[in-house]
Design a protein that fits this description.
Elements lengths: L7 H12 L8 E4 L6 E7 L2 E7 L4 E7 L3 E3 L2 H6 L1
Antiparallel strand pairs: 1-2, 1-5, 2-3, 3-4
InterPro entries: DUF2158
Protein name: DUF2158 domain-containing protein
């Protein structure tokens, strides 16, 4: 069996899993107090980095994990 090089996605997944984070890169999240649907793009200094499109440009912001909740995929199916 051949040893294949590991991809950066696999490394990121393991790094996040070991850190005990609730969200994985590419998960959809929203701020608990309301706001746009965002995609998790990474973690930095204990903060969850997110990006979203506001109709004009891609925005990015870092949030504490406790400020976020998983996006409701059922709403996307209804739209």
């Amino acid at each position: 069996m051949q040893n294949l090089p590991s991809s950066s996605k696999v490394k990121k997944f393991h790094m996040i899993e070991e850190a005990g984070m609730r969200f994985l890169v590419s998960d959809e999240v929203i701020v608990k107090q309301g706001g746009p649907r965002m995609i998790v793009t990474g973690y930095s200094s204990g903060m969850v980095e997110c990006r979203w499109y506001d109709g004009f440009a891609v925005q990015r912001e870092a949030f504490h994990e406790s400020e976020l909740q998983a996006g409701d995929e059922r709403r996307l199916e209804e739209a």
